[in-house]
TrEMBL record:
UniProt keyword annotation of Zinc-finger present: no
Polar residues bias: start-end ranges: 11-30, 38-53
Organism of derivation: Dictyobacter halimunensis
Keyword annotations: Glycosidase, Hydrolase
Protein name per UniProt: beta-N-acetylhexosaminidase
Enzyme class: hydrolase
Domain Glycoside hydrolase family 3 N-terminal: from-to ranges: 178-500
Catalytically driven reaction(s): Hydrolysis of terminal non-reducing N-acetyl-D-hexosamine residues in N-acetyl-beta-D-hexosaminides
Family: Belongs to the glycosyl hydrolase 3 family.
EC nos: 3.2.1.52
The UniProt record lists the keyword Hydrolase: yes
PANTHER family (alphabetical): BETA-HEXOSAMINIDASE (PTHR30480:SF13), BETA-HEXOSAMINIDASE-RELATED (PTHR30480)
Pfam families: Glyco_hydro_3
Record region (Disordered): 1-53
């Protein structure tokens, strides 16, 4: 913390005091002798401040000195008084003020260093230092380094209970700034095969928590290129680790096909009617993804195929046509995928696209099912797998479900996200939106509006930003909602805890001292 301006000026007054003594005139000799006799320094134990108090009260013989009951900053004027001779009391006070200001400028310039002192703000950065809430990457590293040190080096004289994941996550969350917390809630994408300046800005300045890798964005060319890219993302991130995500479903949505060869579609695996085969497919995907440092797979699809006209049916992206088959096969796949504790899976697309005839990428589907039908068909796989404790993450798609919420898309609906997923199904893991760049959202909402509504609805991760400007727009919208009381701070903290706990579950955030 920076010292207050008056105390900073006092730090530099002793040198002026010494020069003043050399220039003291005979007219002030008696007064100077008295001050020197009563002048006692008391260095403070606070290393950021040195406060010297001088109590001098006595009548003096000099013509222009009335009495002394002042601080060290006043005493530093003796040299000026000696050379000025007969300055008025008010003039001396003005000079004292100027000297204090100069001392402050010199101290601030030394504290800030040359780059900021001569930078865009110049002198303004010295007089009016920025009070932004942004936190640097070094601040992030200091947070975890400090926590880890304390957790590992506990006093041996006192028996300590093992640090639980939840307790560790609470410690980290309590040390994060608002900007860091909001950064963790962002999942961004970028264009190109190399680590770009825009991606660097999103990671370093906004400290985003997740990066989505996409073959359509040109992120995946060959093995060497892809490994180099993912390694640079990991190494460039702050000490709050970045989770890299991908859609690796197999079949028509096989992002790694050109690197590792084709993988079977969900429909092909489901048709085998063999959970062991599906389990092995999950293990294989985890091995492939972990080899590139990818920790979050946006799969399996748990939509129940119930329309020959749906995009999911035509692209063979579902495990089957009944909730029972989908539940059994998706459960086997998720077990295999998460067995190594290096990759976490994501159930999608809640509340269900199995009967949708419009692709959310190009429009906003409307699902004309009753709540009872949704419960017995579309939501049955979610409920079954949540109850078995396998599920760490769920993705919510963009569609209208009139039986639950006729006015808001599902990804922005508190009735569906909080009401159904959280309250009725009891899901306490991470909920993420599908990309907010899809036409099902962008046709009706700006990025900041969509981000705010998604968080209000109960989502933890906001997916889709593709540039620093996108991230800034979303974060600024969320901050405005926080300032207005539309989103409580506790709501942000709850999301960050869930996100960090998921990162622990995928091996990115180990507990210090654990084996």
């Amino acid at each position: 913390m920076e010292p207050d301006a008056p105390l900073a000026a006092q730090k530099h007054s002793s040198s002026a005091d010494q020069s003043g003594e050399l220039a003291e005139t005979t007219q002030l000799a008696d007064a100077q002798s008295h001050i020197e006799a009563t002048h006692t320094s008391h260095p403070s134990t606070d290393t950021s401040q040195q406060h010297t108090t001088i109590d001098a009260e006595k009548d003096v013989n000099s013509a222009n000195i009335d009495e002394y009951n002042t601080s060290q900053s006043s005493i530093s004027l003796h040299g000026l008084v000696g050379t000025a001779g007969r300055l008025k009391h008010s003039d001396r006070l003005k000079i004292a003020g100027i000297m204090c200001l100069l001392a402050l400028l010199v101290w601030r310039a030394t504290d800030l260093g040359q780059p900021q002192f001569i930078g865009a703000q110049g002198w303004a950065s010295v007089l009016y230092p920025s009070e932004t809430t942004s936190t640097t990457a070094q601040d992030s590293r200091d947070i975890l380094t400090g926590l880890n040190h304390r957790a590992i080096h506990q006093p041996h004289a006192t028996a300590q209970a093992p640090l639980t994941p939840e307790a560790y996550i609470d410690l980290i969350t309590s040390k994060l700034s608002l900007d860091q917390k909001l950064g963790q809630m962002m999942m961004v994408q970028f264009v190109g095969a190399n680590y770009s300046q825009q991606l660097s800005t999103m990671l370093s300045q906004y400290q985003v928590g997740s990066v989505l890798l996409f073959s359509a964005n040109g992120n995946i060319i060959d093995k060497n290129q892809f490994k180099s890219l993912t390694q640079e993302i990991h190494s460039s991130a702050t000490d709050l680790p970045v989770s890299m995500a991908i859609d690796q479903e197999g079949g028509t949505v096989d992002r790694l096909q050109q690197l590792d060869g084709p993988r079977p579609s969900a429909a092909t695996l489901g048709a085998s009617n063999n959970p062991q085969t599906v389990h092995a497919a999950g293990q294989q995907d985890a091995q492939d993804l972990a080899s590139y440092g990818i920790t979050l797979n946006l799969a399996p699809v748990v939509d129940v195929d119930s329309s020959n006209y749906s995009e999911l049916h035509q692209d063979m992206r579902t495990f089957g046509t009944t909730p029972q088959v989908v539940s059994r096969m998706a459960e086997a796949y998720l077990e295999g995928l998460q067995q190594s504790h290096q990759v976490v899976g994501t159930l999608k697309h809640f509340p269900g696209l199995g009967d949708a005839t419009v692709d959310p990428h190009v429009g906003l589907p409307s699902i004309q099912r009753s709540k009872s039908e949704l419960e017995t068909i579309d939501w049955a796989p979610y409920r079954t797998m949540i109850q078995r404790g396998q599920v760490h993450a769920i993705m919510v798609t963009h569609e209208i479900v009139p039986a639950i919420d006729p006015s808001q898309p599902s990804s922005l609906s508190s009735k569906l996200i909080t009401g159904i997923l959280r309250d009725e199904m009891g899901f306490q893991g991470v909920i993420m939106t599908d990309s907010l760049t899809m036409a099902g959202i962008t046709a009706y909402y700006t990025p900041d509006q969509a981000a705010v509504l998604a968080i209000e609805a109960g989502s933890d991760i906001i997916m889709g930003a593709s540039s620093p400007n996108d991230v800034a727009q979303m974060i600024n919208g969320i901050k405005q909602a926080l300032n207005k009381g539309e989103i409580p701070q506790s709501r942000i903290d709850a999301s960050v805890r869930r996100i960090l706990l998921m990162k622990y579950q995928m091996g990115l955030l180990p507990i210090p001292g654990s084996k």
